[in-house]
Amino acid sequence: MTHVSTLLTGRGLVESPRWHGDRLYFSDWTAGEVLAVDRDGRTEVVAKVPSLPLCTAWLPDGRLLIVSSGEGRLLRRETDGSLVEYADLGIPGWNDIVADGRGNTYVNRAHFDPMAGEAVEPGSVHLATPDGSVREVADDIAFPNGMAVTADDTTLIVADSYRHRLLAFDIEADGTLSHRRIWADLGQGVPDGICIDAENAVWYADVPDRRCVRVAEGGAVLQTVPLDRGAFACVLGGPDRSTLFITAARWQGMTETEMVTPGTGQVLAVPVEVPGAGRP
Question: What pLDDT digit, counting tens, does each position of 246-261 carry?
Answer without folding.
Answer: 999 998 877 777 888 8
